[in-house]
Amino acid sequence: MFISSSDAIRDTDMEKLSRCCIRIMNRENKGYDFYGWKTGLEKYAEYRYHSGLLLANDSVLGPLFSIRDIIARFARCEADVVGMTESFHFHPHLQSYFIYCKKNVILSEEFVRFFREVDTLELKIAIIRKYEVGFSRLLGARFRLSALYGLETVLARFDYRQRPMRWIEPTFHLWKPLITELKFPFLKKSVLKRRGVSLEELGAVLAESGSSYDLAMLNDWIGPQDSVHPARENFSDVP
Length: 239
Fold this sequence. Notes:
Elements: E1 2-4, H1 11-18, E2 24-26, H2 33-43, E3 52-56, E4 60-61, H3 70-76, E5 81-87, E6 93-94, E7 98-102, H4 103-106, H5 109-116, H6 124-140, E8 145-149, H7 151-155, H8 170-173, H9 175-180, E9 187-188, H10 189-193, H11 199-209, H12 219-222
């Protein structure tokens, strides 16, 4: 199910989306991802009949590597709620940009109550505290939560004395080892926008990791002034 608040979706985009989506929604531009998911769940109540529910938002770029088997990996995991990464910022929680809930979770009273009470909030930090952290805290009281790329696994790539603080956000502070060492398939947009990593640096990291992701696809997103010029790219040798 594709949910957007954009007024710039073209007919060609809609035609492509219709091939792989049960439903396409263009909603009022208010609230962030959790409110968007709430709207989608209300409009498509049949979600509870599926074997699981994957919640994803557009805060990441990719996939940098194939995610063909990602649902199978989620399903094989013994946990009931499975995310890609976890964070200890504010309180231990799964980062919500890509999170899978198994059927026993989506049928639970806790899950239904959580989304029923989701409302529009203006401050992103408030959304993180109340909804991203709150989602894990509420469901974690009853269900088992796990991350495919747990923070300890990522931190194990560092010398112990150089380990960052435990409240660190792995997709922001540890993006390089996630990609080069663990073949992590996503890149947070904030790494480019807020951290200021250049496309040249990103290209070098992708080449080192063996990713075939085409950076030229980012041209429409970042704007012409920062576009990737094909003449500067050298991905022809990447497997």
